[in-house]
């Protein structure tokens, strides 16, 4: 337990929290991070990330070409269908360009994108060593700046008195503690680790969801403050949910369980029927809709089927595919009715048209007379061996969060809470009303973490 009352308490220990802590400490504030996870699991969902989406006017570090503000914003509009706060979204987008060199200056190293990683070399900067390396680099930087960290520190309550937070209550190793910092930054993520909360929002089907992120994001601080009248933003049923390998663990499977084979496959439900256009758009703009699509199917499960010519076109799951020499044999191994699957594949193959197949871009190689259609990368599935993966919804983080302003300040019932800021997933619903754009969660966390740290330090001083 800390001996001195810190100027700023930061709730959470992931990317957004660390960016806030480093920024505040560099401004001269005494900072304490309360991380709910044990040290070996520190970092929240940031441990599982690989990249962040970055605006740039020309080549920047490992990024190629240019990626301007308007193109970036239009990409966001496409996935959110306009359900975003334009002002906050543009702050995140513009802030990403200056954040990239800031990240390098604070220990993060980058590498060129690998083949098969969603074709993001122009838009997304990849972390050398992945998200865990980023988290460790930030913790080293924070320690050098004098930031104190308490692990296994479960924050249960922030006392909101009028327009100020007056007390922070937490437990560590079974002992209750209270602090009275001058400012608080909440960066403790969504509530996806709390299955009971997911069931309350989604219904009983949420029992079948897999949580690809940390089990420590339970939403305790989020709901504690919402119960005290802090303004919320976002729909509790909206989330970053992708289709992951059905064999993944219930919690913390991370990015290695994601399946990127969908654009090159036929996806069927438990009845052996297709239900959506697998080739609707390039994968970085569509991979995050497939969690919800699978969640809407019976038993919240689907199956992706490819043939040998597509085997090496995507980054594979950590689990090997189910393999067979014929489609009926594959269906049996997947637990599906073989005649139904064989009929679906035959119908799909008959609808495929000739074209110039281009796996990394929209190629217009489409089906004809098929409902639902496949509008790109539609090649007949005829070359054995055949491969199959089971798909389940993998929830990364939920979008219900705090309403904040351009300074990341949390809004209370009648106005801003004077000494409370939020960053990362806990306020991302302001920008991500629905859908997701690859790497954008890290962008929001980095930009608004830095803003929150700067504003909290200015308030303290």
UniProtKB/TrEMBL annotation:
InterPro entries: CobZ, FAD-dep_OxRdtase_2_FAD-bd, FAD-oxidoreductase_2, FAD/NAD-bd_sf, Succ_DH/fumarate_Rdtase_cat_sf. Gene3D superfamilies: FAD/NAD(P)-binding domain, Succinate dehydrogenase/fumarate reductase flavoprotein, catalytic domain. Residues 7-433 form the FAD-dependent oxidoreductase 2 FAD-binding domain. Its cofactor is FAD. Keywords: FAD, Flavoprotein, Oxidoreductase. PANTHER family: FAD-DEPENDENT OXIDOREDUCTASE 2 FAD BINDING DOMAIN-CONTAINING PROTEIN, FUMARATE REDUCTASE. This is FAD-dependent tricarballylate dehydrogenase TcuA. The gene is tcuA.
